[in-house]
Design a protein that fits this description.
By secondary structure, this protein is an alpha+beta fold. Helix content is 32%, strand content 24%. Uridine-diphosphate-2(N-acetylglucosaminyl) butyric acid binds next to α1, α5, α6 and α12.
């Protein structure tokens, strides 16, 4: 079983290059299904969620060819309206985009309900609503999204009464194949929504207003192939920004869109961290003291829920009490128990975590309970003198491209180790990193 071993307590410094955004990549890969040409997608992060998306596409007949580590060619011309294997679909959340893409292309789809990180209930009613507005009949009984639109999808007026990244992207992908005008009101505005719209536009779709509160799609146009590069991952960048602050170091975080990082940058500045913006980079330098702060997660451009556990590590280290209110996922607090194992003083009540601050973490054996919680364990371990071992790291590898090498390159004592099942504490302490 592979684990990450970290001997922490050292200030990180140097330059780190940010990979393509996971949540844009997984959507663009499935969006390629509605194009009837060859799509070359560049700047893909090398992560297991992307590998799973590509495997799902292959399973329904797409031709998928890796051109390099980060570049793939997808030809969905010969794709068929067949079911993808359930064990693949259930591995990831993003497989729900296959529903929008197949429904748009074939007027029917049957795809298993998606998996993904466990944050409690993860409903798909808004996705279903969008498909129904576009003229589909949707049946969810039997653990599948089973949808059918007699004569194909038709443009419609879709109003979302709450913001959903996934439902917005699914509505866009389906609507580019629907005949006529679709208007999406109150869509999510995350940078990856704009990225998917830009990709589809590069294939010939007519989409206006992505990233604003009204998106208009003039659907039914034939879509061709294109070459497209995925935007940088603001959550990976944010994780390294917190690493610089948590280890009292300084990192030049390269290949980012600083505007996308604003919600994170402004919170770090409030805590006394220096964040300098360049054209495609940010330089993050720890300040003399780390002030407490209160954080509330919100849809973009609010503070991202996918930075919640990482920010929690910083709030533990701040020199006074802070709190963090989670408004997106009701069960995002599973990292708390793991940080408590490292000595953090955190209390959770009614979707808010209260941090005592001034924590001196103690090294421990902890688990990555989900993707971002796993990233938080890495950050806490980097800030902690002594050896921390992180288990269940495949959850981290779902979304972070080569996190171990990237941290090593900026001075971290971090290594991935294949432990025998019977590994003991003595075994942990004897590993050389
Ligand atoms: N919601 C509904 N009904 C729906 C869909 C969502 O009530 O039909 C609710 C959810 O329960 C949640 C809120 O709306 O309270 C937002 O959910 P959203 O649909 O925006 O989330 P998602 O599309 O399932 C994506 C990311 C998540 C990220 C969220 C929020 C992907 C593949 N996943 O999930 O990313 O947390 O948006 O920004 O894009 C991660 O990368 O670690 C991750 C979990």
């Amino acid at each position: 079983m592979e684990k990450i071993v970290i001997d922490g307590g050292y200030a990180l410094s140097g330059k780190v290059d940010i990979s393509g955004m996971k949540n844009a990549a997984v959507a663009v890969i499935f969006a390629a299904v509605v194009s009837s040409g060859v799509c070359v997608i560049d700047n893909l992060p090398e992560i297991s969620d992307v590998a799973d998306c590509l495997a799902i596409l292959q399973s329904v007949g797409a031709r998928v060819r890796m051109l390099s580590r980060n570049k793939v060619e997808i030809d969905a011309t010969d794709i068929r309206d067949m079911e993808a294997p359930l064990e693949l679909v259930r591995k990831i959340r993003a497989s729900y985009y296959l529903a929008g893409a197949m429904l748009g292309r074939f007027g029917k789809v049957k795809v298993g309900l998606p998996g993904g990180c466990n944050f409690g209930v993860r409903p798909i009613d808004l996705h279903v609503k969008a498909f129904e507005m576009l003229g589909a009949t949707v049946d969810l009984s039997g653990g599948c999204i089973d949808a059918f639109a007699e004569g194909g999808l038709k443009g419609a007026h879709i109003y979302f009464d709450s913001c959903s990244v996934g439902a917005t992207i699914n509505a866009i992908i389906a609507a580019v194949m629907a005949e006529g005008l679709t208007v999406i009101e109150n869509p999510a505005k995350e940078p990856h929504i704009v990225d998917v719209a830009n990709f589809l536009s590069a294939c010939g779709a007519d989409i206006r207003g992505a990233g604003t509160s009204v998106i208009k799609i003039y659907g039914g146009k034939p879509l061709h192939g294109c070459e497209y590069a995925i935007i940088p991952d603001m959550i990976e960048a944010g994780t390294f920004m917190v690493a610089a602050a948590a280890t009292k170091g300084g990192l030049y975080i390269n290949g980012v869109i600083p505007k996308h990082l604003e919600p994170i940058s402004s919170k770090l500045r409030e805590m006394g961290v220096k964040v300098e913006e360049y054209d495609q980079a940010v330089m993050v330098t720890a300040g003399k003291r780390l002030s407490p702060a209160n954080v509330k997660t919100l849809a973009y451009p609010g503070f991202p829920t996918d930075m919640h556990p990482q920010m929690a590590v910083l709030l533990c280290l701040a020199d006074g009490p802070s709190h963090l209110n989670e408004t997106i996922w009701n069960n995002r607090f599973r990292y708390v128990e793991e940080l408590q194992r490292m000595g953090a003083k955190i209390r959770v009540s009614d979707r808010t975590a209260y941090f005592e601050g001034n924590t001196v973490f103690t090294p421990s054996v902890v688990k990555a309970v989900d993707l971002r919680a796993g990233a938080a364990m890495v950050l806490a371990a980097l800030a902690t003198e002594g050896r921390t071992v992180i288990e269940d790291i495949m959850l981290i590898e779902r979304g972070y491209d080569d996190i171990v090498s990237k941290f090593r390159a900026v001075g971290a004592n971090i290594r991935k180790v294949d432990f025998p099942d019977h590994a003991t504490n003595t075994f942990f302490s004897e590993i050389k990193i």
